[in-house]
Amino acid sequence: MSRLFGGVPIHGLAMLAVCAFILVVAPYFISDYVLSVLIIVLYFAYVGQAWNLMIGFAGQLSLGHALFVGVGAYTSAALFIHFGIGPWVGVFAAVAASVLIGSVVGYLGFRFSIRGVYFALLTIAFAEFTNIIVDHIRWLGGTEGFFLPVSNRETIDLLNLRGSQVMFYYVILALTGAALVLCRLLLNSKLGLYWQAIREDQESAEAIGVHLFRYKMIAVAISSGLSGIAGVWYAFYYNNLFPETTFSTGKSIELILGTVVGGVGTLFGPILGAFILTPLGELLTHLTEEFKLDGIKQFFWGLCVAGIVLFRPAGLWPWISGLLGLDQRRDGGGKP
To answer: Which end of the chain is least crowded, N or C, by CB within 10 Å?
Structure first.
């Protein structure tokens, strides 16, 4: 427990407990529409944590992270549709497939010393390449889409992830909480210290004996594996997959934007960013449909990113945590 909560002030723990309690009881007091928005908020918060582990902790920029989510989604969906294998078993295959392709991307990038924006372009290339392949595989639905059968939306069938929104809400809430705890433990571990050393200065880290290839590969493997789990949840929640949307660069940007706004390299930044951007996105979508304001959502996202870069380059969470008197050094691995 000391590893998990060490350095966090008492009022910070109290605030965290209150927020957790509100999230646990929320489905009993909100409408179905608000619940659906909250579900997507938590989904983006979870995937944001997975991406943040790779870029924020280890300093490896991925702009094609939808690749790992999509691989996990298609793997679990294919096992369920063609072989009747449920998601709680299929998730192991989904994670393995996501880690495998993540390891291939990482190996090619790190073995040939591809860094920064060039590594980001490599992740985009693999996502687009996978998009083209899946698009031509009829066994996976191809361009017509891959659809999971839905016969139960009222009662809870947790074994097959078939059921109501409330069930999916608690599953993604548990995943988000587990990801937060995992990232906290990793950040405070020796592995986390190696990642931060690599993030800050690879040459200096290597000079003091940090094995760059090994620890960067570990970061990619964990991040892609967590993203694969998100893909399983995504497939069974939406019940349809289309390669052009699942693996698109636009989807990758959507997945990571909350973390950029909340604070890359911080624990609560991805959660904060998801809680800000997702409801705003819903509002902008409504305005687009109501007043025919095409493009307003993309315009607003551009303004958000520009504003963060100009005024809060470290993201909103370090600023807010400073106002609340929280210990930023323990939250963001030393980042401002």
So the answer is: N
Question: Distance (Å, rounded) from C-alpha 255 to C-alpha 50?
Answer: 10
Phi and psi at residue 199, to the nearest 5°: -60, -40
Cα angle 9, 13, 18; round to 5: 145
Burial (CB < 10 A; 0-12, 13-18, 19+), residue 154, is exposed
In angstroms, the CA 317 to CA 313 distance is 11
Q: Whole-angstrom Cα distance, residue 121 to residue 230?
A: 23
Instruction: List pLDDT tens digits, range 23-42.
Output: 999 999 999 999 999 999 99
Give the global pTM.
Answer: 0.93
- pLDDT tens digits along 37-55: 999 999 999 999 999 999 9
Q: Which CA distances in Å does 109 have to 112, 133, 207, 232?
A: 6, 21, 20, 26
Q: Which of 194, 205, 227 is nearest to 52 (CA)?
A: 227
Separation of alpha carbons 233 and 236, rounded Å? 5
Question: Distances from the Cα of 115 to the Cαs of 40, 65, 109, 238, in angstroms?
Answer: 32, 16, 7, 35
Q: How many of the other CB atoms lie within 10 Å of CB of 82?
A: 10
